[in-house]
Amino acid sequence: MTRETHLTNLELKARIMRRVYGIWFWKGVAPLLAVEAIVLLGVAAGVLTHVSLRAVLLNALSASADAWAFGKFFVSNFFVKSIQSQLLVAVYAVFLALFARDIRNAVRRLKGYGADELLPAVLLGGNRR
Known about the structure:
single chain; mainly alpha; elongated; 5 helices
């Protein structure tokens, strides 16, 4: 096998793998990320109806002198709130963690296939050469 043939085979393999990954992403990962994003926004809307972030942040800034006191304020404030607010914040944190995990896994897979060439192909719905 000549060097040119070998390079052509590698390019063909890379194109096929980009296309396979693009199809897998749009059929397997994108719908899951879309559902998670919608649920995340819904829970965030619920949190914002029960917790005034502006008031909490203003109180936290005035009550804390350093980062440790700032974090301590949020923890103590969380346990003073109603059970409904605590559950909403906890559910929001769980969904945010799941969403971040799924995005991290998708990006990690992108890097495995050569993200420089693959990302435009995935965003455009496949390899369009």
